[in-house]
Design brief:
single chain; 357 residues; alpha/beta; Isopropylmalate Dehydrogenase; 2 domains; 12 strands; 39% helix; 20% strand; binds nicotinamide-adenine-dinucleotide; binds manganese (II) ion; EC 1.1.1.87; amino-acid biosynthesis; metal-binding; NAD
Length: 357
């Protein structure tokens, strides 16, 4: 049996209500998977900042690096006005652990969608592009001019494209293990860029992605490309068409938030921050102060984030079981949380999913 050590970082607000659900589903996986888990509770977030002066204690980073195979991150509250010394712990974690890919699956279930189910994943480069934050403002005779560097490297474009190809192949395996949730038959990657205008930066991204996805191991993956503005149009007109979408940082940011709007609730959408040999599962939603403490947060984004983390730790079968149990809960629609129009509590949704494992 394999034992995985998982760092649990609930953070703030409903992070503290959904991360325990994530732990429970790991503890409840069938023993036939031969998979055991040990857990370590770790601190980060705005409350940690208020108590200690840092939102991401060194101890949290050290333990993740030295002891853990993966982690689950809940949500953090960010102050609405700038607070001296505060910076987002998840952004810092991505840097410190070199989690260079942000992966966001967006999915409807067969029963809950009118028309074809949506089942796509956006793979966003997470280390460069305009987010290197090298900006400057100049005074000119015509007034101020601000400029920013958009940095695209061969290395980052290549590794993000490789991970996109690997995800496409793996999704195929997971569909086989948990059938009935998608009608897609062969894996596809869509490269998103604007190289018609930005021939050097986005041109390099496009060319490098093409090269990476031409590798022998991706011979079964159909590769397409789409200019980012028409990508947005097609994503909203025909979301069921897409499988894996790979994009540089800024386009990926916008596409992933936009795509999340294609499904019913933020409480359904998972994500993972992925590097070589490490993955942090993280629901897309925030700390939801409006429902904090009521016990009604939807745990499904977190449960799907657990499955996503397991995929990147090489446990496809365990991930497929969780995805299928969650889809079963949604299709059955007897235990839905209030954000989904139901009346079930976090605990009741969780118990219904666990019953279906
Ligand atoms: P939010 O995602 O916390 O909430 C938006 C709306 O969605 C709220 O009405 C909330 O009740 C609902 N919602 C979110 N998750 C839900 C769930 N699991 N179940 C049921 N309903 C859910 O976004 P916000 O209100 O804009 O931000 C609140 C705080 O969270 C802010 O401090 C913000 O900075 C922070 N935030 C953090 C992250 C993150 O940690 N990744 C992301 C977004 C916002
Ligand atoms: Mn965003």
């Amino acid at each position: 049996a394999r034992t995985l050590r998982i760092g649990l970082i609930p953070g703030d607000g409903i992070g503290r209500e959904v991360i325990p659900a994530g732990r429970r589903i790991l503890e409840s996986l069938p023993s036939s998977l031969n998979l055991n888990f040990s857990f370590v509770d770790l601190e980060a977030g705005y409350d940690t900042f208020k108590a200690t002066g840092t939102a991401l204690p060194d101890k949290t980073v050290d333990i993740l690096k030295k002891e853990c195979d993966g982690a689950l991150f809940g949500a953090v509250s960010s102050p609405s006005t700038k607070v001296a010394g505060y910076s987002s712990p998840i952004v810092a974690l991505r840097k410190k652990l070199d989690l260079y890919a942000n992966v966001r699956p967006v999915k409807t279930t067969a029963g809950s969608s009118n028309g074809n189910p949506i089942d796509l994943v956006i793979v966003r480069e997470n280390t460069e592009d305009l987010y290197v934050k090298e900006e400057q403002t100049k005074e000119t005779p015509e007034g101020k001019v601000a400029e920013a560097i958009k940095r695209i490297s061969e290395r980052a474009s290549s590794r993000i494209s490789t991970i996109a190809g690997e995800i496409a192949l793996r999704r195929q395996n997971i569909r086989t293990a948990a059938p009935g949730t998608s009608n897609r038959t062969s894996p596809m990657v869509t490269i998103t860029h604007k190289s018609n205008v930005l021939s050097q930066t986005d041109g390099l991204f496009r060319e490098t992605a093409r090269k990476a996805l031409a590798a022998q191991k991706f011979s079964s993956v159909h590769v397409e490309e789409q200019i980012v503005d028409s990508m947005v149009y097609k994503l909203f007109r025909q979301p069921e068409y897409y499988d894996v979408i790979v994009a540089p940082n800024l386009y990926g940011d916008i596409l992933s938030d936009g795509a999340a709007a294609l499904v019913g609730s933020l409480g359904l959408v998972p994500s993972a921050n992925v590097g070589d040999g490490f993955a942090i599962g993280e629901p897309c939603h925030g700390s939801a102060p409006d429902i904090e403490g009521k016990g009604i947060a939807n745990p499904i984004a977190t449960l799907r984030s657990v499955a996503l983390m397991l995929e990147f730790l090489g446990e496809e079968n365990a991930a497929a079981k969780i995805y299928a149990a969650v889809d079963g809960n949604l299709d059955d629609a007897k235990f839905l949380s209030p954000d989904m129009g139901g009346e079930a509590t976090t605990e009741e949704v969780l118990n219904d999913v666990l019953k279906r494992l």
